[in-house]
Design a protein that fits this description.
The protein is an alpha+beta fold and about 140 residues long. Helices cover about 45% and strands about 20% of the residues. It has helices at about 5-20, 50-65, 70-80, 80-85, 120-135, and strands at about 30-35, 40-45, 100-105, 110-115, 140. A 5-stranded antiparallel beta sheet has the order 2-1-4-3-5. Helix 1 packs across helix 5 (about 120-135) and helix 3 crosses helix 4.
């Protein structure tokens, strides 16, 4: 199973709404299916040009390593050479900063991932979590 386009759009809408509520800088949100393929992406007006690649890299890294991009950042602090070596072999990159989370269904199956960038990493992650919660799904840390 994967996230549907309707679910992806709903996650994006809820995440961007949360960003507006918090008064954040322009966000970019990427939704990937369980295989790491892009389902949907939205970039708010004013977001810088590399934000789509960063959002995709946060989500793809989470899927690739089976942990949130926040955890990847922690891993990078402990094992910087290892995490740095993954970038060149990861088709969509790996971004070791919070904002990329794995999305799970009610049965625990991985459905895909969300990657958000544009504000602080903590705020990016908060918006990703809000988007996933808004559609009744769970996030894996």
């Amino acid at each position: 199973m994967n996230l549907s386009l309707d679910q992806a759009r709903a996650i994006i809408a809820a995440a961007l709404d949360r960003g507006l509520e918090l008064g954040l800088k322009p966000l970019t949100v990427a939704i990937l299916d369980a295989g790491g393929h892009l389902i949907a992406l939205q970039r708010q007006d004013g977001a810088s040009t590399m934000r789509p690649q960063i959002a995709i890299g946060k989500a793809a890294g989470a899927l690739s390593l089976g942990v949130s991009s926040r955890t990847i950042a922690e891993m990078a602090a402990e094992r910087p050479v290892f995490i740095a070596s993954l970038g060149p072999i990861s088709p969509a990159g790996i971004i070791p900063a919070a904002g990329g989370i794995i999305v799970k269904g009610a049965d625990g199956a991985i459905l895909g991932a969300v990657g958000i960038t544009g504000d602080t990493s903590d705020n990016d992650e908060a918006c990703a979590l809000a988007g996933v919660a808004a559609v009744g799904l769970a996030a894996q840390g």
